[in-house]
Amino acid sequence: MNKKIQRSLAVVSAAALVFGVAAAQTSANAAPKTVYIAYQGPLSGGEASTGTDEQNAVKYAIKLFNAKNKATYNVKLVSIDDQGDPAVAGTVAPGIGKNKNILGVVGPAYSGATIASLPFYKAGGLVLISPSATRVSLTDSASPDFGGPVFHRVVGKDDLQGPALAKYATAGITNPKVFIFDDQSSYAVPLAGYVTGGLKKIAGATVVGTDSVPNTTTDFSPTIAKIATSKADVVIYTGYYSQAAVFIKQLRDSGSKAIFAGGDGVFNQEFPKLAGASAEGSRVTGVGGLAGVSEALEKDYKAKMGVSSGVYSVESLDAANILLQGIAKGNTTRAKMLAWVKAYNGKSITGNTIKFSANGDISYGLFAGFTTKNGVLVNTGIVK
Amino acid sequence: MFSVLIDQFWSLTIAGVALGFIYVLVSLGYTMVYGVLRMINFANSEIFMWGTFGTIVTSRDIFGYTQTSAPATGGKLALVLISQLLMSMAVAGVTAIFVEYVAYRRLRAKGTNRLATLISAIGISIVLSELMRLLTDSRPVGSPRVLEKIILTEVWGANIRLDTVVTIFAAALIYFLLERFVKLSRMGKAIRAVSMNEDAAKLMGVNLNRVITTTFLVGGLATGAAGFFYITVFEYTKFNIGFTMGMAAFTAAVLGGIGNIRGAFFGGLFLGLLEVYASAVLGTQWKAVTVFIVLVLVLLFKPNGLFGEAVQTTRA
Known about the structure:
The complex is a heterodimer of chains A (384) and B (316). Chain A is an alpha/beta fold. Chain A has twelve helices and 14 strands. In chain A, helix 8 links the parallel strand 8 and strand 9. In chain A, helix 3 runs parallel beside helix 4 and helix 5 packs across helix 6. In chain B, the strands form two sheets. In chain B, strands 1-4 form a two-stranded antiparallel ribbon.
């Protein structure tokens, strides 16, 4: 029922967007030339904090670009709110796909929403650069989810994250006994598989138990009973932060001292806030903010945006910069922009080389390890 | 496969009973209204959800507890817990009466068909959950810890924890009081009379509207109490938790025999235990499948649920 209301609201707001953009276009004939790029991700709903952080990084990139190219271009951002939900994405994407004023999209943020949006963007030839959609099938040309030729991403895939998470979770433990469970989502189940794969390469590590828990669960006592029976000393959860917070409290209350670890779904500062003291020492893999790249950059960001940089800000900034550089080079049609991205060869703000493979992947994947200390997830550096 | 069940039997059983008692109280919200009106109160799940927020607001905003503050002790602990319970029951009770006024009363007075009230109840339930979604910005809300989860003792390898003990005993007490109320009080008798035969009850001078409002109130109070216990055990809520809970409690009510108070009791406990055992033995992914297979099997052999239908069968 909820979904339906959300969907119809989404249709209305998408329509408003399309007309709004068209109206703005006709009234802006004078130089500098006004062009539009979009950001797509969850800007409302339970996952809104991820989308807001990403969109802020895109806004920051646009701010810098517009200041530098005042005479020639005025780039404007179109916000596409898909709530991170495939059902909502499927209703907003058609309008965006048809609106030729939008040259490229940073996003979609989530893999499921990406898959739902893809048919409309492929039809419209709209180039996508996602800062955070990590599902492997998106760039697998044999999969029905394949996003080519429009989909690209500047984030490492889950098959790179899984081993990184396995490594980080078991660091410093000899012969770790690992219990893995997922939330049955299309993000968590494959990631759990890649974690299991990664564990095979860690000396002495064994998987002593698994479970698969619906993401509406609040009573984790059966899972905790299994963990107790399995005598696991490391528990890895591949779902999202809100469930992780409920779980970790119950695990600690049961008296278990096993290490708790999670992937980038758990990587959210709301996690320690919700779980309180129980979250202390939890190990989470994710992507760092700008401070991990340079303190000066973070300072400038904070001064210009009024907030600190958040999750995926490095990736969002990189993705926006690729599109903006394309605009500066005069690629102001969709076809030209797509060709520009496909042929792109440049540097990430982290210094890595960004060059997309034929299927839209970059060659590196950086996952940082975070540990909860005093109620905050603290960056402990890239997992190597 | 069964090693978990054998190894952790008592831990699972205690967790299942605690969860079961929460189901029992929410089931009462469904069963009471069904017993009297022969209609499902689809908004009961959202009444529960509002109750959980009432609980958190009491400890967080009235008593000023935060995620980092130390749990309460002694007299303060009793004061905060009782205030939380009363607030949750009050919020849920008021919400239930509101639902009755808006979704049922006028439609009933106009003699509309049953489907109209069904839809109006669903409508109210959407309004209640969307309103909370907007108020909380769709975010999950964690509850500060008021009751320290001390492990009291160990019995047969299972940790007996304070919060589960409090939940089981207090919930059982509330159930018992409500059952006595329906059985013995004047209003309780009126409720059962309306449940048996509305027209005859009216002719005997029973004030129908008052009885129906009271029924909603009693159901709401039980559901609100469940909200308090839920927060005490799980310390977490969100605008959409009502759906899962409502589904489980409704299933429990049907399992026991909807409209039957004792049925809600056994249905709730049975469901709580079944869920934890099935999750532990088969894996949590099989929980819902197992529960509904059992429900269908029970209904095949006992179409009115384990204890049959209707409030009036609780003999005085």
